């Protein structure tokens, strides 16, 4: 077992946050009508992807009936439909959709993680819950040694990446980087951090995030990697 695999197993077994444990298990037990015949995962979602990844995505948290149901980040929900379609078009995935842990999806040079690994009520995390999950994100940054581009999906994912990278000493800044779609922050010679609106229905249904806007993020990530 590799260190990354051991970390993934530790994440799955985590019960640090009582509120999140209660919520994820309640959702998994009570389900919703459209998934009533499915067995929910009901545990934290480990990171997922290529151990040699050059591109790292940091999201918010699993969806109650997405990752909390399927056991894989951005899998089985509308946000995942947007994300994997964009990754596929940019060459970071072998297929444009993700419906289950056993659907044959492979990420190519890409790894997906999140600020928090459990589905939160109303998609809102408490600061203590983000802090409890921080050691897992820090360890992923340490183990994913080839990462050269980091995409923070949404303000929470972006801020979690910034806090982790500052703690690891990847960069120091007199002013904390501000989140914005398409904003780029050079982390010395180590990597580039890019901000992106999260592909949540709140953003995609309202047109705040369009498909060309989202595709442009991964086109830019690919451009940076190819020019390195």
List the helices and strands and how they pair.
Blueprint: H1 3-12, H2 18-30, E1 48-49, E2 55-59, H3 67-70, H4 78-90, E3 110-114, H5 127-143, E4 149-153, H6 154-168, E5 184-187, E6 191-196, H7 201-204, H8 211-227
Parallel strand pairs: 2-3, 2-4, 4-6
Antiparallel strand pairs: 1-3, 5-6
Helix pairs in contact: 1-5, 4-8, 5-6
Overall geometry comes to globular
How many strands, what sense, and barrel or not for the largest sheet?
6 strands, mixed
Radius of gyration: 16 Å
Side-by-side strand order of the widest sheet? 1-3-2-4-6-5
Overall mean pLDDT = 96
CATH topology category name? Uracil-DNA Glycosylase, subunit E
User: How many domains would you count in the coordinates?
Assistant: 1
- Indicate the structural class: alpha/beta
Beta-strand portion reads 5-15%
Q: What's the total helix number?
A: 8
The CATH architecture category equals: 3-Layer(aba) Sandwich
Question: Element order, helices and strands?
Answer: HHEEHHEHEHEEHH
Helix content: 40-55%
Distance between the termini: 31 Å
Kindly provide the name of the CATH class: Alpha Beta
Residue runs with pLDDT of under 50 for 5 or more positions: none
Find the CATH superfamily: Uracil-DNA glycosylase-like domain
């Amino acid at each position: 077992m590799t260190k990354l695999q051991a970390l993934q197993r530790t994440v799955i077994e985590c019960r640090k946050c009582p509120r999140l444990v209660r919520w994820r298990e309640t959702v998994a037990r009570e389900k919703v009508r459209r998934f009533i015949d499915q067995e929910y995962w009901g545990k934290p979602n480990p990171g997922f992807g290529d151990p040699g990844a050059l591109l790292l995505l940091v999201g918010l948290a699993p969806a109650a009936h997405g990752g909390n149901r399927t056991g894989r980040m951005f899998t089985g929900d509308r946000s995942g439909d947007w994300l994997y379609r964009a990754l596929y078009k940019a060459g970071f995935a072998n297929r444009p959709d993700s419906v289950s842990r056993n659907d044959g999806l492979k990420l190519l040079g890409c790894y997906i993680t999140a600020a928090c690994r459990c589905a939160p009520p109303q998609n809102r995390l408490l600061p203590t819950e983000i802090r409890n999950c921080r050691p897992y994100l820090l360890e992923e940054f340490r183990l994913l040694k080839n990462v050269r581009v980091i995409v923070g999906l949404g303000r929470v994912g972006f801020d979690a990446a910034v806090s982790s990278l500052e703690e690891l000493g990847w960069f120091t800044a007199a002013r904390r980087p501000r989140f914005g779609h398409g904003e780029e922050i050079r982390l010395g010679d180590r990597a580039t951090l890019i901000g992106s609106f999260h592909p949540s229905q709140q953003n995609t249904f309202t047109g705040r995030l369009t498909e060309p806007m989202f595709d442009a993020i991964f086109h830019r990530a690919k451009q940076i990697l190819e020019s390195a």
